[in-house]
């Protein structure tokens, strides 16, 4: 299976968007690239941008490897991606408003009721909830893969608490510092306005009874969370307070923040805590991370939570398989961005096919994430395949399967030189009553191991700066 190389045509002719990058690479020897790569690592260490992997014995804070060769997206390619992403997020919002409201998509037979009602991320507490502008997903990270010159596919939707935007912004900052000559040779769309755009989106969904200048805060689980750096980074970029559950309290169904000047009302919470931990009076009673009574204030319409409680159901990989039908149902439009072809193992014919072709397919848990809980058939041993076969037979509803895609490759510095490595893309889509806004680019993740298709940082992947050309 030959992957599409985003820089080269037939391994020789350079594609137009990469011509200046190719010239830059040709002017450098491996030692110069090593020096620039080491400089980039030093900058990231000074910044302190780290993450931790839960469950590992050492669980130490570490850097996500940064590759200094940028990924280039042509202007016309981005225009089409932007349209497809806007449509995708509009579908997600319509779907969530419907399943917590009239449930028309279930009544019409577009999606089975049990996929909703039996999903652990479906929150009956949100049934009938009225949200500003019917917007449930204020910040979405839609994972995109490319397979050829013309086609991008949606790999998965992240609508709960999508992460990684800090890397998008810091990658750009570091790239401008270590290779200003190549950056300024290009007309690259900026990403440094993300904080302003996000703040505007959050303020636009403040409750009706909020003041003219709504108060927003970012709710974090605290410094032991793997994404805490990003939480503090974003709070700083937005100019809002970074708070933990203990910094907030609810009185008379109104949320307040403790300050040195006394209680201050909070209108919008950008929350980076999962539903289960957000209010111990409603969800997990043992949670020390949330705010008792927060759901009361939320459902009373006195504070907005972004993203909304209950959005996690749209991250489910079984729900993902119905997105094309949901786009047609809610928007009366054909999907501009296709799904990866997918077999629903809950369906007998699909299960039979998957069991017969396990060595060819990628099998994923519907609730899995981070590259865990999956089988990459062509890369797996016979024993690993047989273990998954038993899992599938025991609980087919818990899995989907997809073909092993030849994800596109980008030139990547791998120590001994430049070589192609597989990549994906996570653009960040902002939604508010002021409309949908997409920062040009997003987070390119790269599988640094030769031949690997797993780009997740927890599985050894790295990141790249993503350049969308302005012309």
List the helices and strands and how they pair.
Blueprint: E1 8-9, E2 13-14, H1 19-26, H2 30-47, E3 66-73, H3 75-99, H4 104-107, H5 113-117, E4 139-146, E5 152-158, H6 165-178, H7 180-185, H8 194-204, E6 216-219, H9 228-238, E7 241-243, E8 248-251, E9 254-257, E10 264-265, E11 268-271, H10 294-299, E12 304-306, H11 317-320, H12 323-331, E13 338-339, E14 343-344, H13 348-356, E15 361-365, E16 374-376, H14 382-394, E17 399-403, E18 409-413, E19 418-426, E20 428-432, E21 435-438, E22 443-446, E23 462-468
Parallel strand pairs: 3-23, 5-13, 6-7, 6-11, 11-12
Antiparallel strand pairs: 1-2, 4-5, 4-20, 8-9, 9-10, 14-17, 15-16, 15-17, 18-19, 19-22, 20-21, 22-23
Question: Briefly, what is this?
Answer:
The chain is α+β, with helices and mostly antiparallel strands and 471 residues long.
Account of the protein in words:
By secondary structure, the protein is α+β, with helices and mostly antiparallel strands. The protein has helices at about 20-25, 30-45, 75-100, 105, 115, 165-180, 180-185, 195-205, 230-240, 295-300, 315-320, 325-330, 350-355, 380-395, and strands spanning about 10, 15, 65-75, 140-145, 150-160, 215-220, 240-245, 250, 255, 265, 270, 305, 340, 345, 360-365, 375, 400-405, 410-415, 420-425, 430, 435-440, 445, 460-470. It has a five-stranded mixed beta sheet with strand order 3-23-22-19-18. β8 (about 250) and β9 form a beta hairpin. The longest helix is centred in the N-terminal third of the chain and has 25 residues, at about 75-100.
């Amino acid at each position: 299976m030959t992957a599409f190389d985003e820089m080269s045509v037939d391994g020789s002719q350079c594609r137009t968007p990469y011509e200046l990058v190719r010239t830059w690479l040709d002017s450098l020897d491996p030692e110069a690239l090593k020096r620039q790569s080491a400089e980039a690592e030093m900058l990231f260490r000074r910044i302190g941008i780290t993450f931790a992997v839960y469950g590992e014995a050492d669980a130490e804070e570490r850097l996500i490897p940064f590759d200094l060769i940028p990924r280039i997206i042509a202007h016309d390619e981005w225009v089409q991606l932007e349209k497809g992403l806007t449509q995708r997020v509009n579908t997600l919002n319509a779907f969530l408003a419907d399943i917590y409201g009239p449930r028309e998509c279930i009544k019409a037979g577009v999606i089975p009721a049990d996929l909703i009602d039996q999903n652990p991320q479906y929150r009956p507490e949100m049934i009938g909830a009225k949200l500003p502008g019917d917007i449930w997903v204020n910040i979405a990270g839609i994972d995109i893969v490319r397979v050829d010159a013309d086609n991008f596919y949606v790999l998965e939707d992240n609508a709960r608490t999508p992460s990684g935007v800090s890397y998008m912004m810091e990658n750009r900052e570091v790239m401008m510092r270590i290779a200003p000559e190549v950056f300024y040779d290009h007309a690259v769309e900026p990403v440094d306005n993300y904080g302003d755009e996000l703040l505007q989106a959050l303020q636009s969904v403040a409750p009706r009874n909020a003041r003219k200048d709504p108060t927003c805060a970012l709710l974090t689980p605290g410094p032991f969370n793997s994404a805490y750096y990003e939480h503090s980074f974003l709070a700083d970029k937005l100019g809002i307070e970074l708070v933990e559950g203990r910094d907030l309290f609810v009185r008379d169904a109104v949320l307040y923040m403790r300050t040195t000047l006394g209680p201050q009302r909070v209108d919008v919470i950008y929350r980076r805590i999962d539903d289960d931990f957000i209010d111990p009076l409603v969800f997990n009673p043992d949670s020390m991370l949330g705010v008792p009574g927060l759901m009361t204030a939320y459902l009373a319409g006195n504070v907005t939570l972004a993203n909304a409680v209950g959005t996690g159901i749209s991250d489910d990989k079984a729900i993902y398989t119905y997105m094309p039908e949901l786009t047609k149902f809610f928007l009366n439009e054909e999907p501009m961005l296709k799904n990866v072809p997918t077999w629903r193992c809950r369906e007998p014919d699909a299960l039979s096919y998957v069991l017969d072709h396990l060595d060819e397919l990628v099998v994923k848990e519907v609730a899995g994430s981070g590259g865990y809980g999956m089988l990459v058939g062509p890369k797996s041993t016979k024993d690993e395949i047989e273990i998954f076969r038993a899992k599938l037979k025991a609980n087919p509803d818990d899995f989907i399967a997809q073909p092993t895609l030849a994800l596109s490759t980008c030139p990547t510095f791998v120590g001994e030189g430049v070589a192609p490595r597989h990549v994906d893309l996570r653009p960040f889509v902002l939604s508010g009553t002021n409309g949908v806004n997409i920062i040009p680019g997003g987070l390119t993740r790269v599988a640094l191991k030769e031949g690997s298709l797993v780009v997740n940082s927890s599985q050894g992947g790295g990141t790249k700066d993503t350049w969308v050309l302005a012309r």
